[in-house]
Design a protein that fits this description.
The chain is an alpha+beta fold. It contains three helices and two strands. The protein starts with a strand and ends with a helix.
Length: 71
């Protein structure tokens, strides 16, 4: 099992720390790359669209949905 990696990002002008497992960070980086954006920009986009819950959970759900639609 992959360990948790904590990263600091600036989202909407505010610094925040996000803890995710390595495979989720890897996939977020890949998705951002395919879209031509930074991981921070992708995370900000996901953050702006979430409806409650914490940001780490929203990121995991986003990645899961992206993986499911790529099948």
């Amino acid at each position: 099992m992959s360990g948790i990696i904590k990263r600091s990002l600036t989202i909407a002008g505010h610094s925040t720390s996000i803890s995710l497992e390595a495979p989720f960070w890897d996939e977020l980086k890949a998705i951002a790359g395919r879209r031509g954006q930074s991981v921070a920009a992708l995370v900000a986009e996901i953050d702006a669209g979430r409806r409650g819950g914490n940001l780490s959970s929203a990121l995991r759900i986003f990645v899961l949905e992206m993986v499911r639609t790529d099948r």
